[in-house]
Amino acid sequence: MRQIVLDTETTGLDWKNGDRVVEIGCVELLDRRLTGRHFHVYINPERAVAAEAVAVHGLNDDFLADKPVFAAIAADFEAFVRDAELVIHNASFDVGFLDHELGLLGRSPIRESCSGVVDTLRLAREQNPGKRASLDALCERYEIDNAHRTLHGALLDAELLAEVYLAMTRGQESLIMALEDAPGAEATETDTVIGDRPSLHVLRASDEEVAAHDAMLADVARANGGKCLWLAGKESSHHP
Asked: Which of 76, 142, 161, 232 is in the most buried spot, having the most CB atoms within 10 Å?
């Protein structure tokens, strides 16, 4: 499985207002391992960089003046990400900017070059509703050293995001490995032996436990704006 962890820096916050990409950073994961291969380029946006953006990433007009324009790097960028799954933090932002740049050149949207997009911001919010989900916050949560990150930078942020993504999804990897390594994992239906089974003792929740469970679901519902599927399902049923 080939994945590309990607980040961009831009002249501002909205490509619809004419903002452009000034930096792209990508690192490659192959079967969930960093390969050391990367794609990194600074880009002349052919327009001024907003002061607010310079304060975030430090890339000013003078620095970018002699850098290649997007048209000069588009083919190499597409070749690097082609057929890979993209891993991006707040994917709609980066994908929107990249699609705009590609569209200006009459090229296809980025999703047509890759096999899919994983949004780690959405994933983080699903895993920890109500918790901070910025890259810095996730580095802190998963104990990833980002002390050297004084300014945003596309390649540095892509490298940090790769570590964060692997930490966020490590449970999935462990489950797959456990299933593959479990005794009898290769058994087929013909190996199944059905015999007499002892009756099962059903231990029902006490009133106190039910109340504690309801309180926990209410906390989850408050944290994610009332979108608690377990609570919705519970409201349509009743306790035994």
From this structure: 161
